[in-house]
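Aim 2 progress update. The chain analyzed this quarter is reproduced below.
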Amino acid sequence: MKRLLLFVAAGFCLSANAIEYRTVDTATVLYDAPSQRGSKRFVIKRETPVEVVVNIEGWSKVRDADGTLAWIEKKYLSDRRTVIVTAERAEVRQKAEEGSPLVFEAEKNVALEYLEAAPGGWIKVRHRDGQSGFVRANQIWGL
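Predicted structure tokens:
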């Protein structure tokens, strides 16, 4: 019995630690409850990454980069991944190396498409204009 409880507890901890990020597909209203009859909180813009906290009956409770929690209809969430710049200016480089040439800089709150993780705390991203490169993970949110 003790082993079973430990196994169940371990399984619960593993699933509780899994973080799911999604991208807002279309600008839409966020609510204080999982219903269109709830109070409207604010409009979230297209391409914004959010962390899914809870899913119920066509709705998701999400957290944004500022830590704000609200409800969104699931149909407005995409599986495509974006990240958002949290640094004042994020440096996107040609290679996942500090001395690599700069491709572009992205200002705070700019959404970038997440492509893949790279060794050493780098993330490969693409700007909506097509430029791609590597940014430090500590300059973005949505991983």
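The helical segments are 2-17. The CA atoms of residues 8 and 14 lie 10 Å apart. These observations will guide the mutagenesis experiments scheduled for the next reporting period.
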